[in-house]
Write a structure and sequence with these properties.
With 231 residues, the protein is mainly alpha-helical. It has two domains: 135 residues, Up-down Bundle (Four Helix Bundle (Hemerythrin (Met), subunit A)); 57 residues, no CATH class. Helix content is 78%, strand content 4%. Strands 2-1-3 form a three-stranded mixed beta sheet. The termini are close together. The structure holds zinc ion. Zinc ion binds next to loops.
């Protein structure tokens, strides 16, 4: 095989290595990415805290209601026990009882509203908890398959890197340096020639140059500098 042909083969392997390396990077990025899971988790925690706060409020309201009911009971007792005879005092007690009654009704309404809210929040927290668990399971599964894929790609990369060594070994260092330099500046160092045209830059080669390429000489394209190769 001509030198250009050997370099072309090396390039094929290098391109494959590049592609696999990219795949590996993507896999590693995916493996490290648990953003969605964290977001769902913190939303869940926030909802749980809101629920706890609402429940605390509910308890507080229940105590306030009990307190009001107890006070009304005492007032009623004073009113109807017969111990209080003073009419003015009786009127005051009646007013007091009425005031307690209206406070109790208001408090009961507030409490009912809050209880409905708590119930709704409990359902939401339960649903969110299931959702987070589902996300966690899915994430875990994805991690497993990504790890497996990563191992596969690493094995392929090892195989390619061995292949590259085998291909590069017989080449002399000056040619390899030229190849690497062109790879750096041109992306691809070796270009095929088809029907007298360099496929790297699409320019038609002078006949003499094409002849030299066909003869197996190491020739670089006048236009794009790439090493020219015929099959
Ligand atoms: Zn060219």
């Amino acid at each position: 095989m001509s030198l250009a042909g050997q370099l072309y083969k090396l390039q094929q392997v290098d391109l494959e290595i590049q592609k696999k390396q990219q795949t590996l990077n993507e896999i590693e990025n995916h493996l490290a990415d648990n953003k969605d899971l964290l977001t769902a988790g913190s939303k869940f925690t926030a909802q749980e805290q809101q629920l706890a706060e609402a429940k605390r409020k509910q308890k507080e309201m229940e105590w306030e209601l009990e307190d009001l009911q107890e006070k009304m009971k005492q007032t009623n007792h004073k009113l109807y026990s017969g111990k209080t005879k003073n009419p003015k005092e009786l009127v005051n007690l009646e007013n007091e009882a009425r005031s307690f009654k209206s406070k109790i009704v208001k408090k009961e309404d507030e409490l009912l509203e809050l209880m409905a809210q708590v119930e709704e929040m409990e359902a939401e927290v339960k649903a969110r908890s299931k959702e987070v668990q589902k996300l966690q399971r899915e994430w875990q599964q994805r991690q497993e398959s990504l790890k497996q894929r990563k191992v596969e790609v690493e094995v392929e990369l090892n195989r390619l890197s061995e292949m590259r060594q085998e291909l590069a070994q017989p080449l002399d260092s000056e040619n390899l340096r030229l190849y690497e330099q062109l790879r750096m500046t041109r992306g691809q160092a070796v270009a095929k020639v088809e029907q007298g045209r360099c496929l790297g830059c699409r320019i038609t080669l002078p006949t003499s140059q094409w002849q030299r390429v066909k003869a197996g000489d190491l020739v670089q394209c006048n236009n794009c500098n790439r090493i020219l190769c015929v099959e």
